[in-house]
Structure formats: structure tokens, C-alpha cells
Write a structure and sequence with these properties.
Chain lengths: 334, 334
């Protein structure tokens, strides 16, 4: 179990912060989307109407205020990181064959694969356009951070896809892939605030480390939802990650065990899974302790994330918002 | 003894320039690709092994020397523009369902749609990484130019795709789409040299205008190849653009004519085309004068491109190379 003592208001702080950030970022995000070719705006708005928590945008805003700047300083970074995140979701949905996200049809399933490819491409380019509109030293540095993180994220997505056709991967391979796929962009989100604020390197590094560990915890929790999450909540079929042969953290931990259960799991994941197969795979993963180990790993990385925030001086209010968002998004808020 | 003055043809100058540029750019391009995740390099190298004339890279190099800088100054721009161009080809081939390019299997048909999407994404990000590695004022400006041109290109590709399902488009709609799809990136290619060279705005503007008109001429010639080109040369089936219901310039001109022939053409292009349909469509487009009008339009834009080069002072040798490349690539070199 996590050793942190959580205030009962973490959930409330996080929810309020995310709502405030979404409200602050929305006009700038809409203005950015409005720069796209009219033909592309429809699919983008269809996608964005699905909502999403806006964690990355909030991190970009709050990391700016944590570094002593105004929230406004982080807005351009928040818009850029949301654009990149949504570009990756739109392309991921094609690659994964997902027809629904956030209880809505995905862009490719609604408009076709070609339009979904081009819409994702447009959002990726738009993110850089937004940052480079006014090429101050801070914004250029933010663009460098974002394009670097984007490249790492793409490498992680490529590995994630390649791992689907492998029998098993090591836990380390999984952690590396998940760091690339998720943590790099979250780390960038929390770096954008201090970068745009012109904060000292030490502050940027500490916030980047916070984001990196938070990302690992966040992805571990997401992996659990991909296996045990309620469809009503995830917006995806029961055991969706298992159906897609995703080698997520619980799966890679379970497959690394010795014994017949691991062999049975490997055989189940080697073919198309029936609902009974999904149920059996869930039991196998849970009984070998892989679920508990995944939770423990998420807790450990959340602790490391919070510890990173203690290494530098940050504005108290925003700092507590960062803590609350991390706890909320990793479901350690209750 | 007669003194024989040998004037090399535009073709010879262009071929030599393209070969020299390809040789100069290759090591930097390979180094850039080497930065990608190993899993992505295979598909990229498969794609790049198909060759291609390297017109955009050559324009970036030669435009630097035309503005008085060394060729080396343009190399980073040449690499970046080739990366963006190849990203667009890889994604276009998915969207168009093309299984072959340059007589080789396309990335999606060889490796799958998912890997082709992600490989294209990686090249697009890599182009910006390369430029922003050393964020000098010139390179940042080059990145701004490139990301802006990329966004315009994406809008053009979206229109190109959307037009496939329309009965007809106006000639102006076609010209606007083709400007966006092709001319914007070619204009950027010729701007990158002077931008990286820190040349005066007037020089950048004149070269950008050269690239813009050259792009329109280039696309018009490409449109003719898409209808009348030899498969042995284009690497695509006979009348490939007609099979795909592409509303290219000859088609949009022909459809805009009054009379029964235009109605017959519209009907032919409204469904799947047999080889006999392709042959008949070719005749209809040619007999109404649309082929000749397309050639005339290409010639007019080539003239405007060359005129733009006269507006500013450029280094003579590189300037003649730009002229030769424009003539060669628009098949006006003999």
C-alpha cells in the first residue's frame, strides 16, 4: 500500500483544477483548431467533443504557476500538448482498430481511415505552429521539448504495436515501452510550464521528473483499467487490452512467472479470446499476483513523483494542485 | 578547325545538380533516420530505397548557394524537407490505397497500415527535430516555414481526398488544392536555402515565388502523367489517377466544358473504370483540349517561376541550376 497520507480533498482539488484549466484553455484550443482547413475541423471537433480529463493541459498550466509565472504563460503550452495528445489518440485508434473512445465513435470509424490519418497529421503540425507563432527563446525551447517528446512517444507506440504479435515481453521491455508511450509526453507537459516561464534548469528538471514518474504510475493504472475496467467507465469492451493482445504491465509480469498458469495465459493470449477466455485470463493474471504488483509499482512511482516536487522550491498552491492531479489520475485519491 | 561551343542542356545540368545534391544530403539524411527507434528504421529505409529525384532537397541546397551561402548551409533544410516529403508520400499511399511507388511495394502494403502511419508520424517529427537541434534564429525561421508549409500541404491532401467523391470541381478549386498539396512545400524548399543563409527578405520572397509557380507547373505535369504516363515510367497502373477518381487539372478542365462529352466523362468517372473506360476517358479529356490547356498552364507557370528569379540578384551558377531543375522537372528541358 501507498504510504502517503492523502487529504480527503485531493479529489476535489484535482477536479476543480482540471475544470479550471479546461475552461482557461478552451478558447485558445478552439482558436487553434479554427486555423485548420475547414474540411478538417469537423472530424477534430467530433473527436474533441468526447471530452477527456485534460490532464496534460492542466499540468502545463499548473506547472507554469508552480514555477511562479501566471497561468496565461502556460496556455500556449497547454494547447500544444493537447493537440499532440489528441493527434496520438486519433492515430492510435486507427492502429488499434478501436471503434469507440469516450463513448463516441472514433474519428476513423466515423469519417474513414484516410481522413483520420490526415486529421492527426494536421493536429501534430498545428501544435508546433502554435508554439512557433511567436518564436521567443522560451517558446522555441518548448517546441524542442515537445517535438522530442513526440518522437519518443511515437517510438513507444511502435513498440506497443509490435509487442502485440509477440508471445511475451520482459517486464523491463514493457516498462521501457510504457515510459516512451506515456511518460515522455506527460513529463513534457509538466516541463512546458517552467520552460515557458523561463524558470531555472533545476526547476524544469524536477518537474520533468515528477511528470515522468507520474506517467509511469498513470500508465500502470490505465493498464489495470484495460483489463479490469468497467466498460461503462472506460468506454471500451470488457478486457479490451486482452482482446487486442496488448502486452501491458500486468500481462508482462504474469507472463514472466514460471509455471503452468503463465503457459496457460500465454496460450490464451496467442489467439482470439472469447468472453470466457477473457474472464480466465483475468483470473490468471490476478492470482499470480501481477495485479497487486502493478498497483505496487504505480504506488512506488507516485511516491517518486511526489518526492521530485520536494527537491525544488515551488509556489505552494499550484504545487498542491500538481500533487492532487497526480493522486486523482492514478486513482490514489481515495 | 571549328570551335565547337558545347552548351549543356538543361537536362544535363539538372541531372548533375540532382545527383550532386543527393550525394551531399545522403549522409545527413541517413544520420537523421539513424536517430529513429530501430523498429521504425526498416520501413523508412525500405521506402527511401525506392529513390526519387530528390528535387526538394536539391532546391534547398541550390537556393542556399544562389543566395551566396555554402551548400553546407542548406543541408539541414534539405534533410528536413525530404523528411516531410517522404512522410507525406507514406501517408498518401495509405490514403490512396496505392500498393506500389517507384516500382516497389509501398510501406503500408509491405508492413501494414499501422506501421505506415507511425513511420510517417516519426518522419514528420524528425524533420522538426533536425531543424531545432541548434535553435539559431535562421533554423527557427526555417522550422516555422516548414511547419506552416506542412499544414498547407495537409489541407491540400485533405481536399484532394475529399474531391475524389465529388462529381466535379471547378478549375479554381483544383488549382487551389494543387497549390496547397504541392506548391507550398516546393516553395518552402526553395525558401529554406535563403532563410538558412540569412538572406534579405526580398531574396527569400523571390525564391519562394519561384518555388510556388514551379510547383504549380510541376503538379500539372504530374497530373498529365497520372492520366497518360507510361506505367513503366510512373510505376503505377495505366490511368491511375482516373481509376482513383482524382479530380486533377485535366479532369477538372474537361468536366467544366459544356456538352455531351463532359457528361459522358462525368458518368465514366462516377464509377469503377474498366480499361476501356480509362481509354475512353483519356480520349474525351484530350479531344476537348483539356490536355493542351494543362500543358499551356504548366508553361505559363514555368515562365512566371523563371521571371521571379530575375527580380533579385542571385549567384549565376546556382541560379542556372534552379532554372534547369525547373525545366527538367516540368519536362520542358528539350
Amino acid at each position: 500500500m501507498n504510504t502517503h497520507t492523502f487529504t480527503p480533498t485531493a479529489n476535489a482539488i484535482a477536479s476543480a483544477t482540471l475544470a479550471r484549466a479546461a475552461h482557461t484553455v478552451a478558447p485558445a484550443l478552439e482558436a487553434a483548431v479554427g486555423r485548420l482547413s475547414p474540411a478538417l475541423q469537423g472530424p477534430v471537433l467530433h473527436h474533441l467533443a468526447g471530452g477527456g480529463k485534460g490532464v496534460r493541459a492542466a499540468l502545463a498550466l499548473v506547472s507554469a504557476t508552480a514555477a511562479g509565472a501566471t497561468e496565461e504563460t502556460g496556455v500556449v503550452g497547454a494547447v500544444a500538448i493537447e493537440l499532440v495528445h489528441n493527434f496520438s489518440l486519433i492515430h492510435d485508434d486507427i492502429m488499434d482498430g478501436d471503434t469507440e473512445r469516450r463513448h463516441r465513435s472514433t474519428v476513423w470509424s466515423e469519417f474513414g481511415v484516410g481522413p483520420a490519418i490526415i486529421v492527426g497529421d494536421a493536429l501534430a503540425a498545428l501544435a508546433l505552429q502554435v508554439l512557433l507563432d511567436e518564436p521567443t527563446a522560451e517558446r522555441v525551447e518548448a517546441a524542442r521539448c515537445l517535438v522530442q517528446a513526440t518522437q519518443v512517444m511515437i517510438a513507444g507506440q511502435a513498440d506497443d504495436m509490435a509487442f502485440e504479435s509477440r508471445d511475451a515481453i520482459t517486464v523491463q521491455e514493457c516498462l521501457d515501452m510504457e515510459f516512451a508511450k506515456t511518460s515522455a509526453l506527460l513529463s513534457c507537459a509538466v516541463s512546458l510550464g517552467p520552460i515557458l516561464a523561463g524558470a531555472p534548469d533545476g526547476t524544469i528538471a524536477a518537474l520533468a521528473e515528477f511528470g515522468s514518474h507520474f506517467g509511469t504510475a498513470f500508465q500502470a493504472v490505465d493498464d489495470m483499467l484495460g483489463i479490469w475496467g468497467e466498460p461503462s467507465r472506460t468506454g471500451k469492451p470488457v478486457g479490451n487490452d486482452l482482446l487486442q493482445h496488448k502486452k501491458t504491465l500486468p500481462v508482462s509480469i504474469a507472463l514472466a512467472r514460471a509455471g503452468d498458469d503463465a503457459l496457460e495465459l500465454r496460450a490464451l493470449l496467442g489467439g482470439d479470446l472469447s468472453p470466457a477466455d477473457v474472464a480466465r485470463a483475468r483470473v490468471l493474471i490476478e492470482e499470480c499476483g501481477a495485479r497487486a504488483e502493478t498497483i505496487a509499482l504505480a504506488d512506488a512511482h507516485l511516491d517518486m513523483a511526489l518526492a521530485a516536487l520536494e527537491r525544488v522550491e515551488l509556489v505552494a498552491g499550484p504545487k498542491s494542485e500538481l500533487v492532487a492531479i497526480a493522486q486523482f489520475a492514478t486513482e490514489r485519491d481515495r
